[in-house]
Amino acid sequence: MNPDLIIRPERAGDEDAIHALTASAFESMPFSDGSEAPIIRALRRSGQLSLSLVAQLDDRIVGHVAFSAVTIDGRANGWFGLGPIAVDRGIQRSGIGRALVASGLATLRERGAAGCALIGNPAIYSRFGFESDGKLTYEDLPSHLVQWVRFFGPTPRGALKFASSFEAGNY
User: Fold this and answer.
1) Residue 89: which of 152, 149, 34, 24 has the closest Cα?
2) Which pTM value belongs to this model?
3) Mean pLDDT over all residues of the chain?
């Protein structure tokens, strides 16, 4: 990874760069419906964006990750959702995404979060300690895609629900 890479919290003025980066990063992904960048704007607008980190290289934002509170079986219990996460298409697979996730998880842990959940590829997220035991579910998705990493407290069980900004019509 580039030693000049800086991971820092989002600050005022970063919004348009984050939007453009996210839209571009997901543009060619077959699983994307194009909602990722608008979701981040909606999270920010609604006050649901709990943690927003950017990766900066040579004064340019080249990566971003968002975290927002989630509920499990309708209860807010200190759990957060990871995503969307985006890295500039020209430098993906260079460690930027890993650095963003690791920094975000460390920050959540320091803030006393119970854990973090996501929908994603187990081959990618297992390296951060994410796992799936089939007891945390999300709609009708296969259980292996619904993953979590626990910082403290009980293992998550039940129906995962992301912030309302993720719902169609709210972004």
Assistant:
1) 24
2) 0.94
3) 95
Task: State residue 167 phi and psi, 5-degree precision.
Answer: -80, 135
Is there a contact between 69 and 48 (Cβ–Cβ < 8 Å)? yes
Buried b (16+ CB within 10 A) or exposed e, 39-51: bbbbbbeeebbbb
Minimum mean pLDDT range among 28-32, 79-83, 161-165: 28-32
Domain at 6-166, CATH from 3.40.630.30, 3.10.50.30, 3.30.200.20, 3.30.565.10: 3.40.630.30
pLDDT tens digits for 61-99? 999 999 999 999 999 999 999 999 999 998 888 999 999
142-162 pLDDT tens trace: 999 999 999 999 999 999 999
The residue ranges of every structural domain in the chain are 6-166
Instruction: Give the chain as a 3 state SS string.
Output: CCCCCEEEECCCCCHHHHHHHHHHHHCCCCCCCCCHHHHHHHHHHHCCCCEEEEEEECCEEEEEEEEEEEEECCEEEEEEEEEEEEECHHHCCCCHHHHHHHHHHHHHHHCCCCEEEEECCHHHHHHHCCECCCCEECCCCCHHHEEEEECCCCCCCEEEECCHHHCCCCC
